[in-house]
Amino acid sequence: MQKPQLSFAQIWNMCFGFFGIQFGFALQNSNVSRIFQTLGADYNNMTILWVAAPVTGLFIQPIIGYMSDKTWGRLGRRRPYFLYGAILASLSLLIMPNSPTLWIAAGMLWIMDASINVSMEPFRAFVGDMLPRNQRGLGYAMQSFFIGVGSVIASALPWMMTNWFGISNTAEVGMIPESVKYAFYAGGTIFILAVGWTVYSTREYSPEELEEFEKAEREMDAKTEIIVLPSRSANQFYKGGFIWFVVGAVFTILVALNIEHLNRNLLLLTSGLALFGIFQLIAGFLEHRGNNSNGFSQVMIDLFNMPLTMQKLAAVQFFSWFPFFAWWSSATPAITSFHYATNDVSSAVYNEGADWVGILMSSYNVAAVFAAITIPFVVRVLNLRMTHMINLFLGGLGFISFILVKDPIWLIIPMIGVGFAWASILSLPYALLSNAVPAKKMGLFMGIFNFFIVLPQILAASILGFLVNKFFSGETIYALVIGGVSMLIAGILTLRVEEPVQE
């Protein structure tokens, strides 16, 4: 019993919710730094405040992936998470621009990002559930298309509010401009409507149907060389956990003792190493007790038992996503200070620059829409690996060129390369991954794969402020240059990933 081929309209409907999700995500990425700066944050504060997003994803995504693998109810398997996450995210978008203080805004970022993650994570597994293997590339490309379109509109929305509707983009000191507020109100409405359409229009397969489909795919599983490694022993968890904990604890103490010479954000990195050691020790204890059937143990076991293809893709993803956190958290202060020569958040020049950042974010997503359409044709001429490598090189060079381009108008050009990299990152790795993991664990492995999206963002939040202040005299533009170098490394690592077996 093979999964039926879905029509273009059916794939459109099942992916349309991503338009709303990305609308909210793009508003967050384009405007949260602006909101933080308006409420009094400096660059060091902003990077640590921004870490809310990746830390939330680190915990939420594997949990939601594991839970959605086990769920079946009135709304289906993945759709309950789409809907409930959308409701919470929409409410957060309405509240966020009305935050009276910096720490309330930071708390709302945690809630908003957690809610977006609840909706977003199951969408990746949704494609694997609903589509036969030969249509999954189209499914992920369709998601990339909606990601691009949603981002284009959402990122430019504050600028549109000002230039098309005459809504003010400036406000008193410590107040969020009306253009930003109305953009968030529109985003909350669009988020729930788009996700609601997918929930309404798409029927999921029952667990019994999925079981039949999986039986039919087992021969293909053998061809794609899915590697199932033995469960990690308690002693292995204990040994690894002890080493990670000791290293993390020692470096945490060293950073704390020299905090006046080091950036305090480094404590996030060092304490994270120790925390990972603690998680391994807990997993070892549970394994020793024979209690490894719970969600926590399954995540820890499968983290160390990833198929080889997934391991190599994880390295590529790690260096691919570091630059985008640098871009989202640093673009506004970098461009307003370097290209507009101001740090006065209440000035007209600063807000003109902040609006232009929104246009730049919109422009790279315009390029991503075009790339999502053209990438499948390029893959036919080259292959998945070479196409992804070229796109990552274009993105890396785009980020590096920000320090060479003086006129902010011309920053549109490097955004084209960034857009091609963005579209490639959002589609090609998932198309490769969905054929390399067991179908019944699709949600869990997608959640674990997202570790290598959020971990580089946590690393960026930990070290970017330190690197910029220590080596580049606090000039934020160099955060984008560092991100560009990271993306070039990701392109090189793509050569390690094998091409999938052609059916």
What do you see in this structure?
With 503 residues, this protein is mainly α. Helices cover 76% and strands 0% of the residues. The chain has 19 helices and no strands. The protein has helices spanning 8-38, 43-50, 52-70, 79-95, 102-130, 133-163, 178-201, 207-223, 234-257, 266-288, 295-304, 308-338, 348-381, 384-400, 412-425, 428-434, 442-449, 451-471, 477-493. The longest helix is centred in the C-terminal third of the chain and has 34 residues, at 348-381. The chain starts with 7 loop residues before the first helix and ends in a 10-residue tail after the last helix.
Write the layout of secondary structure elements.
Layout (H helix, E strand, L loop, with lengths): L7 H31 L4 H8 L1 H19 L8 H17 L6 H29 L2 H31 L14 H24 L5 H17 L10 H24 L8 H23 L6 H10 L3 H31 L9 H34 L2 H17 L11 H14 L2 H7 L7 H8 L1 H21 L5 H17 L10
Helix pairs in contact: 1-2, 1-4, 1-5, 1-6, 1-7, 1-12, 1-13, 2-18, 3-5, 3-17, 3-18, 4-5, 4-7, 5-17, 6-7, 6-13, 6-16, 9-10, 10-11, 10-18, 12-13, 12-18, 12-19, 13-14, 13-15, 14-15, 14-19
